[in-house]
Design a protein that fits this description.
It is built from seven helices and no strands. The chain is an all-alpha fold.
Length: 161
């Protein structure tokens, strides 16, 4: 999805998310018997007094929440441009966890979002925009559900390190 935003400014966002996927995947590959699902991966990693994959999953979940909230805001507020939606999502999801060094990088990315009409055109033909919005709504609902499950799990006491 971030590739469709078409801006080099989103590369740090994308690379951060991919780095977090790698942390989780590395743990899963290193200990497949203890990693049948994300919850068991986290709980078993924390038993070893390590938290690399757990921290990666936490940041990946925050990144996915940011993406979901930005797109949900945009689909629910038809007059808002993507930059407005992404700024609002950043403020409520990632910004509270970012240092003063990271915030400007993300701020630049929020300013580099394409125009709404251009982004939605990349998702599908202009004549199919009703279908595009319908499909995006279904995709977002699934993403929001998965993010909710992960946030609930990662918020539990046994997931703290």
């Amino acid at each position: 999805m971030l590739d469709l935003l078409g801006s080099m400014a989103f590369n740090p966002v994308k690379n951060d998310m991919l780095g977090n996927v790698k942390k989780v995947r590395d743990r899963q590959l290193a200990s497949p018997a203890d990693s049948s699902n994300l919850q068991s991966l986290v709980l078993n990693e924390l038993k070893t007094k390590k938290h690399t994959a757990t921290e990666g999953l936490l940041w990946l979940t925050r990144g996915l929440d940011f993406t979901a909230q930005a797109l949900r805001h945009n689909t629910s507020n038809s007059s808002d441009e993507l930059s407005t939606s992404f700024r609002a999502a950043y403020t409520s999801t990632l910004k509270p966890h970012h240092s003063f060094l990271v915030k400007p990088i993300f701020s630049a990315a929020m300013s580099a979002t394409p125009y709404k009409k251009d982004f939605y055109a990349k998702l599908g033909a202009e004549s199919d925009q009703g279908k595009v919005r319908e499909e995006l709504g279904r995709w977002l609902a699934c993403l929001e559900n998965q993010v909710g499950v992960l946030k609930d799990f990662l918020g539990k006491k046994e997931c703290k390190w």
